[in-house]
From TrEMBL:
Residues 6-142, 200-270 form the UspA domain. The lineage of its organism: Bacteria, Bacillati, Actinomycetota, Actinomycetes, Pseudonocardiales. Belongs to the universal stress protein A family. It holds the Pfam family Usp. This is Nucleotide-binding universal stress protein, UspA family.
Length: 272
């Protein structure tokens, strides 16, 4: 097992543990190591009065972080026993820690909601900062309570006509090939440009001949199109910016809708 690790932000929440399980399977598929990271800062309130000093508080949070990391290691080993697992505990703000980790990671994985050091990782500044400044793909693991986890569903990639979306397409093909699942390439209809989807996909299809590809060009807006396809997907992949049907995906309303409401894990891929 070698290469760049898959990094997971751990905070003790059930959502983070779901992210750990997803990441462990990704490591198994890609023969990559798993790196679990918990980062925390000292709160100004919210801990019991019995903790009377900053030193006591640091000790309590350190012990709590170690416990959460131990739980995450147990989940990872149960999911993928042969995957190499390492962990790191930092007294730093989570956002810069994860951005720094992204410079030497295959991908960074976070849960859709949480507590502790990564509270609100998907609904606030951490997710946005990772999407904009992270140096590798960022995966947000979303599994709504009403839907069972569907690990064998297809990989769905949102395609537009910008060169920047090639990174998302390539990542989607790689994930589909490693997981042994089909790929669905979806484009929201953009006048006559929609006929170019086949040309955009042909080079990647030749590189990954074993991946079954279904191409969809649909005359509707990107949000409902991807939300509908996500109901049956194992992973939804989008670029961090673009034009055409998916313009401004990670900086506008489409990205926010997917982050809050997508019915499956979402991967955000920046241009290479």
């Amino acid at each position: 097992m070698s290469g760049l690790p898959v990094v997971v932000g751990v905070d003790g929440s059930s959502s983070a543990l779901a992210a750990v399980a997803w990441a462990a399977r990704a490591c198994m598929h890609h023969d990559a190591p798993l790196r679990l990271v918990h980062a925390y800062t000292l709160p100004t309130r919210g801990y019991p009065e019995v903790i009377s000093s900053a030193r006591d508080l640091r000790s309590a949070m350190y012990d709590q972080g170690r416990m959460w990391l131990s739980q995450a290691v147990a989940v990872a080993r149960a999911e993928a026993p042969d995957v190499s697992v390492e962990h790191d505990l930092r007294m730093e703000h989570p956002t810069p820690v994860l951005i720094a980790e992204s410079a030497r990671a295959r991908e960074v994985v976070v849960g859709s909601h949480g507590l502790g050091g990564f509270t609100g990782a998907l609904v606030g500044s951490t997710a946005v900062a990772l999407s904009i400044h992270g140096e590798c793909p960022v995966v947000v693991v979303r599994w709504p309570k009403e839907r069972a986890q569907q690990h064998d569903g297809p990989v769905v990639v949102g395609v537009d006509l910008s060169p920047e979306s090639d990174s998302a397409i390539g990542f989607a093909f790689e994930e589909a090939a490693a997981s042994g699942v089909p790929l669905v390439a979806a484009m929201a209809h953009v006048d006559e440009q929609s006929s170019l989807l086949n040309a955009r996909m042909s080079g990647w299809a030749e590189k990954y001949p074993d991946v079954a590809v279904d191409q969809l060009v649909v005359g509707e807006r990107p949000i409902p199109l991807l939300m509908d396809l996500g109901q049956r997907a194992g992973l939804l992949v989008v670029g961090s910016r673009g034009r055409g049907g998916f313009a401004g995906m990670l900086l506008g309303s489409t990205s926010q809708a997917l982050i809050y409401h997508a019915p499956c894990p979402v991967a955000v891929v920046r241009p290479a």
